[in-house]
Amino acid sequence: MKPSPVYLRWGLLISSAAMAAVLVGAGLWVRSGVSQSASTVTQGQALGIAFTARRAIRSAGQINPQILREVFDELVPQGLHYAEVRGSDQAVIAAAGHPATEIKWSDGGHLGPSASIGFGQGGSLARLVIRPSDGPAAAAPGQHGAPLPPSADHPLFGKQLLLEVSSAAARDLAWRANVTLVVSLLAALVLMGLCAVFWRISRNAEKASVQLEHDRQLKVLGQMSAVLGHEIKNPLASLKGHVQLLLEKLPPDHAGRRGAEVVLRETVRLEELSRQVLEFARTGVITCAPMDPVGVVRAAMETLGGEDIQLQVSSAPASWRLDAARMEEVLVNLLRNARDASPTGQPIDVRVDVQSDHGLLIEVRDRGEGLTPGEEERVFEPFYTRRVKGTGLGLALARRIVEGHGGTITARNHSDGGAVFSVRLPPPRQGES
Fold it and tell me: For the chain, which domains are there?
């Protein structure tokens, strides 16, 4: 069984959305993991700098601004960008570098009994604080390589050391993670974009297939209608002639006269149906020439008798290229339908105007009950009609003639009631008048 194009489209959409979600999720997961790794890398770098700084200060035998500056300059290539020593009263004894003043530090926890660390900028920046010891607890070993509090003979004994370290390796990790996330997002967007393009192509292909099948059915219907029309036309003409002769010979009070009149009336109706079938079946050639569109509308009104038709032509063009005879046929059909749909005595509105795209617009509005929902397209299908004596070919033929002009005909309901049929013809091509 061949799968439906609708199921294929939805299957592609769901699978593409799932793949896009996986791509974005993978990018976020990598970014989250790298953020933790960046903090670990920066923490290790900060601890290494802290041990090196303490050894250098021990070697100097004292701590003052000059010694801290020398130690700072030595460790700048390793990522140190600020160092500070405070006394037990929290007064700054020495400082070097520039502290990060606008950084929001996240708590990285405690590293042993007297050291804590905080992180900023996605883990690539760390602030390590080594506080003075408090009594016997200072003798406890450090945790995970954390620095022990300085001994009593160390220049930093009883003092607080603060170091701010920036890790280039952590920044590189974070940058790569962000690039991975951006690539994942772009890939997800491209995937969904391709899915949308395929969806549209599939929809258009499905519509084209339906239209092709519809055209094929119309072609077969036209061929069949032509054969039936020709086969019925001659017998109907003979039947009509004999009935007319019979009516001429029957006296007015004859019992069979009424039946003969019914036969004649129905024969005329079948003859009109046969004419419409043949008209629908034949491939009519549209021959356009400059014509007065208002004159074409008035000719259609005269064919039906236009006492109940209100014509609005204030913005109508003086001339337009169209096939006057075929367009008059369209308008006669629209006006007849509008009159049949409107209550007796209600006017029919006809408007001839130029559209904003410089095309020609002819609208016919009735005062009837309007179209039922979904009927706006069905009324143009061959043999579709709501009238008891209608053939269902008038609007189908009208659409064929209008499309032969390169235009469109549509139906809709008016906001104040009734149906509106709009004929739109394209503007003349360059060089035409």
Answer: 5-179 (3.30.450), 289-425 (3.30.565.10)
Token pair belonging to 135? 């009594």
Low-confidence ranges of the chain (pLDDT < 70): 1-4, 133-149, 214-215, 218-231, 276-284, 387-391, 430-433
How far apart CA 56 and CA 75 sit, in angstroms, is 10
Helix spans in 250-393 (H): 257-281, 293-304, 324-341, 375-378
Q: Is the pTM of this model over 0.85?
A: no
Residue type, 28: L
Residues 6 or more apart whose CB falls under 8 angstroms from that of 161 comprise: 50, 53, 54, 83, 84, 85, 129, 130
Phi, psi of 104 (to 5 degrees): -90, 105
User: Which pLDDT tens digit goes with each residue over 101-142?
Assistant: 777 877 777 777 778 888 887 778 888 888 875 444 333 344
Tokens read off for 315? 């913005």
Q: Where are the beta strands (DSSP E) in 14-143?
A: 80-86, 92-97, 106-110, 115-120, 125-130
